[in-house]
Amino acid sequence: MGEPASGRPDGEALTYGGYLALDRLLDCQEPRTRAHDELLFVIIHQVYELWFKQILHEADLLQRRLEDGDSAGALGTARRIAKILKTVVGQLDVLETMTPRQFASFRDALGTSSGFQSAQFRQIEAVLGRRTFPASDLRDDEGLKAAVARRSLMDSLMRYLSAHGYPVPDAALRRDPSAPWRSDPGVQEALLKVYADDGGPAAEVCEALVDIDEGVQEWRYRHVKMVERTIGAKLGTGGSAGADYLRSTLFVPAFPDLWEVRSRIDETVTTEPSAATERSAATETPAATEASADTGRSADTGTSADTGRSAANGTSAGSEGSGDDAE
After folding, report:
1. Are 188 and 167 a contacting pair, CB within 8 Å?
2. CATH fold of 28-268
């Protein structure tokens, strides 16, 4: 028997609230104080976690598409992740409407809880290539332990490029995925060939991964500034160094080779003359040719006349000069 037209096994009509499990979803907000602004704080962070779940879902598909050599599919998925990251960053605009005093009205109720304890964000970092985590995180989080043992997005990109004929070093393809990724000159040589075809599918895929990397770095920066404006230089609720710790994570790219190769892109660029230069050259050529012809005629005429006169006097032009010097 097929599924009932209602979409529910019992035949009851499926509603919007039932499909989204809104009763359970809207019961998940449990502020610890009566402070008005705590609900906003809870909702913002719960939405973060929902987006993190979606990023992990999309990243899994992205890696499969990369390793299958699917350019169009990988590009679409990478761009979706980058858009989600833009949305995550944008949510900070809402959170920053909370003043330091408003946050202080319920901060003590947070106890030792901290955003640094987000298991999903740690897994996102692992997918992007981070491999150094506190031993306690790896011991207590099976999902994270599995993530650091699998290939990272950069490893999947290497397989994609190799499948499309780019000269990825064997060492980059056979490396231990549980080890941190290190910048590789050989990989950058392959990337130079990728970027030599600026509009090719491989270059677009690489740029989409740069968008993801930039999106994560942008989120880290905005997070730092939000913490600074909210609690200043205080320690974080989880005992971290607060803004100082967050600042130490800035400007650390997930895909260093994709950034470093940019300083060498000009090696693959051939400068072509502009259309105006070509038109100018085409206009000047006839005049230059005519001038050259006139010079040739003048030289021929002058030489013949001078030679004739010199012969009549019994002296060459060169001999006259030598005689003047001797005098």
Report:
1. no
2. Methane Monooxygenase Hydroxylase; Chain G, domain 1 (1.20.58)
